[in-house]
């Protein structure tokens, strides 16, 4: 997830760099060393199947932010627009990511549609 709208101070007219707040270690690696980006890494437990940080501590940390945009991937998208995950523990982190943003973008390819998964983490509107 990330907030990409720079802010400026009327007194100094300076623009702060965009800030990415992420629980995905692949994103951290991609942004590491970029001087034009602030990167905030979420703490918690690293999920063994992919390099994402999860758990209640992660969700609570994410909830501290108010961001312009959240960008997230999902395991599945049901016909009714439900965003789904196979792992119930992911629900809390995904809902925190959705809840802290003014706008949410879901990134998915055609393989995500019609899959069955147990945890409903949100809904998608067209």
From TrEMBL:
<dbReference type="Pfam" id="PF00455">
    <property type="entry name" value="DeoRC"/>
</dbReference>
<dbReference type="InterPro" id="IPR014036">
    <property type="entry name" value="DeoR-like_C"/>
</dbReference>
<protein>
    <recommendedName>
        <fullName>DeoR-like transcriptional repressor C-terminal sensor domain-containing protein</fullName>
    </recommendedName>
</protein>
<keyword id="KW-0678">Repressor</keyword>
<dbReference type="InterPro" id="IPR037171">
    <property type="entry name" value="NagB/RpiA_transferase-like"/>
</dbReference>
<feature type="domain" description="DeoR-like transcriptional repressor C-terminal sensor">
    <location>
        <begin position="19"/>
        <end position="124"/>
    </location>
</feature>
<dbReference type="InterPro" id="IPR050313">
    <property type="entry name" value="Carb_Metab_HTH_regulators"/>
</dbReference>
């Amino acid at each position: 997830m990330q907030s990409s709208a720079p802010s400026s101070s009327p007194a100094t007219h300076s623009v702060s760099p965009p800030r990415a707040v992420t629980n995905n270690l692949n994103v951290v690696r991609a942004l590491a060393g970029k001087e034009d980006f602030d990167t905030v890494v979420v703490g918690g437990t690293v999920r063994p199947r992919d390099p994402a940080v999860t758990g209640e501590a992660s969700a609570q940390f994410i909830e501290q932010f108010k961001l312009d945009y959240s960008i997230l991937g999902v395991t599945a998208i049901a016909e009714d627009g439900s965003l789904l995950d196979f792992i119930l523990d992911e629900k809390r982190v995904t809902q925190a990511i959705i809840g802290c943003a003014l706008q949410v973008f879901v990134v998915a390819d055609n393989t995500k549609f019609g899959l069955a998964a147990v945890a409903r983490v949100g809904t998608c509107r067209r």
